Model the fold of this input.
Amino acid sequence: MKIVCVLGSPRPRGNSTTIARLFCETAEKNGAQVRVFTLSKLEYRGCQACMTCKTKLDRCALKDDMAEVLEAVREADILVLATPVYYGDISSQMKGFIDRTYSYLSSDFHDNPNRSRLKPGKRLVFIQTQGNPDEKSFADIFPRYDYFFKWHGFTDNILIRGCGLMEPGDVDRRIEILGEAENAADILTMNA
Ligand SMILES: Cc1cc2nc3c(=O)[nH]c(=O)nc-3n(C[C@H](O)[C@H](O)[C@H](O)COP(=O)(O)O)c2cc1C
Done:
């Protein structure tokens, strides 16, 4: 089983990163192969809307560090996306990645029920951390992105949230969130 983990926080020891790394370490213990990409260390642009992926190529035309991430996701069984909440949404680093997944959509995706060039049956694990302790705040984020990842054949997607986490290291004291990450990894990768 192959896992690609995309880290959207610029903090090396940020809360979303800690949760994602625990998920990945647990999955590796179960035999999964894990590749981790830290977006803030990569040089890449957002989607340029050139539409080359709809007219001339079956993939993104931009030749930057994101090309390797996009190729790795094609091969993955599980995609882990870890992001802090910035101004009520995902980080700009993560948005830049997600916009580039537009290149997975087929040329006729508006009319074709099989919209995506990705093999169906992948699973998304979405990790979201926020300073605000109120779970009702920013509960709209995951459903919005889950909707589009379903276009790409991702099913039974999982959300792990950490609310009331402001400083790096805050999640270390929240064993219920860390336990949730370990349990999710065990459930998804047992006998990987
Ligand atoms: C630019 C910026 C914007 C933020 N906006 C929000 C916000 O809208 N709501 C919120 O609850 N926390 C907000 N935060 C706090 C972060 O979500 C919080 O510190 C989170 O734990 C960061 O995750 P990380 O440790 O994985 O980087 C913001 C932080 C920054 C730096």
